[in-house]
Amino acid sequence: MTNPHRVWRRGAVLVLACVVLALVGASDDLHEALVGVLDTASKLIAERPVLGAVLFVLLSALSAMLAFVSSAVLVPVALYAWGKTVCAILLWLGWILGGATAYSLGRWLGRPVVRWLLPTEALDRYEDRLSTETPFSLIVLLQLALPSEVPGYLLGLVRYPFWRYLLALALAEIPYAVGTVYLGASFLDRQLFVLLALGAFGALLMYVALRSLHRRLRAD
């Protein structure tokens, strides 16, 4: 089941993104220009804090449902506006909302919608190996290992118990929410070594989780 090229590709994308950020952070002019943009955006959010928080949560939810949407680009703005703790909480809540929505779509609208939203390979690879009786620990591992938009649709489709799924989702998204926020903070603070180290650790975590998931699925 393990495709080494796909395993490494996700990690390579993360590391490459961190390298690009580090190069931007190393440039005084680029970093200063970006900080100016973020400062302006945070002042706009400060004028409408509730609306800004709601929009950030909704966009984070959308990023958890669609592969081509990423909330990472919004994190620096949120950090400027609210700081690390609030940013991480809002990001985490958005991802939970997105996962719950994906689960609901998979459960109530069924296979035609899931096939439209998910890569066929992901659906074919995992659907037959999941059921309402799948152990909770395996669901947490699934959430850690796969892109965030995949598990919700799959588990809704197989009608896995919603509250157990939601708990697994909440637990698995904590390290990613914290890691994403600290990646953004290390970029803003120009802590370039920390930025690259966090990127490498995130890539390693995804790799280990995916390999562990496939070992568990082969053993069951």
Can you offer a commentary on this structure?
The protein is built from eleven helices and no strands. The protein has one domain. The longest helix has 28 residues, at 192-219. It is mainly α and 220 residues long. It has helices at 4-26, 28-47, 49-63, 75-82, 84-109, 111-117, 120-126, 136-145, 149-157, 162-188, 192-219. Helix 5 packs parallel to helix 9, helix 5 (84-109) packs antiparallel against helix 10 and helix 8 (136-145) runs parallel beside helix 10 (162-188).
How are the SSEs placed, and which strands pair?
Elements: H1 4-26, H2 28-47, H3 49-63, H4 75-82, H5 84-109, H6 111-117, H7 120-126, H8 136-145, H9 149-157, H10 162-188, H11 192-219
Helix pairs in contact: 1-11, 2-4, 3-5, 4-5, 5-9, 5-10, 8-10, 8-11, 10-11
Brief description of this entry?
This protein is mainly alpha-helical and 220 residues long. The protein has helices spanning 4-26, 28-47, 49-63, 75-82, 84-109, 111-117, 120-126, 136-145, 149-157, 162-188, 192-219.
What structural category characterises the helix and strand content?
A: mainly alpha
Mean pLDDT: 81
State the domain count: 1
Count of DSSP strands: 0
N/C terminus separation: 13 Å
Shape: globular
CA radius of gyration is 18 Å
Strand content: under 5%
Summarize the biggest pleated sheet. Answer: none
Helix % is: over 70%
- What low-confidence regions span 5 or more consecutive residues with pLDDT below 50? 1-5
User: Count of DSSP helices?
Assistant: 11
Order of helices and strands: HHHHHHHHHHH
List keywords for this structure.
220 residues; mainly alpha; 11 helices; disordered N terminus
